[in-house]
Write a structure and sequence with these properties.
By secondary structure, the chain is mainly alpha-helical. The protein has 2 domains: about 40 residues; about 110 residues, Orthogonal Bundle (Arc Repressor Mutant, subunit A). Helix content is about 60%, strand content about 5%. It has a 3-stranded antiparallel beta sheet with strand order 1-3-2. Strand 2 and strand 3 form a beta hairpin.
Length: about 160
């Protein structure tokens, strides 16, 4: 297993354990962990805002359906609709990670874009989106938007609002 794969696997496990905790509990665990491991965090100025704040702030700004997001993104393929569904789950529903089943359910809520044939090719689409670093596989059949994809989508959605 490559070092990067081990890191992603560890990140997925940490996220899985931390996600159910509330904000203050998360902070206490992270402080304890950095002290325990002797890690000093010095983030660049632009990285100091926690990632978890971004989806919540967008979800309060607007309530976009997957169909609307697909229109904004000019979705024309199954892969595009998966990204629109992932954006809705992340930015509107404030989910950091989502299952294949959640993606599929969200795709179905976009009648203007959804085709049943997309489900036949879902594994292929997910694999290509993961390979292109638009989605990250964080656990078995569980995905998250990559950092670069999240930033790109956030910019497009904010500009369209």
């Amino acid at each position: 297993m490559m070092s990067e794969d081990r890191e992603l696997s560890a990140m997925g496990r940490v996220l899985e354990v931390m996600e159910p905790l509330e904000g203050e509990a998360r902070k206490r665990v992270l402080v304890w962990l950095t002290q325990k491991l002797g890690i000093e965090l010095s983030l660049p100025q632009h990285d100091r805002q926690p990632v978890a704040v971004q989806p919540q702030s967008l979800s309060k700004s607007f309530d976009l359906s997957t169909d609307t997001i697909a229109n904004i993104l000019e979705a024309s393929s199954g892969a595009d609709l998966i990204i629109a569904a992932a954006a809705q789950l992340h930015f509107v529903q404030a989910k950091q990670r989502f299952t294949r089943r959640e993606i599929t359910a969200e795709m179905r809520t976009a009648p203007g874009h959804f085709k049943e044939a997309f489900l036949n090719n879902l594994s292929t689409y997910l694999k290509s989106l993961t390979k292109a670093d638009r989605l990250r596989l964080v656990a078995a059949d569980t995905f998250a938007l990559s950092n670069k994809e999240r930033q790109s989508l956030q910019e497009k959605l904010v500009n369209a609002a």
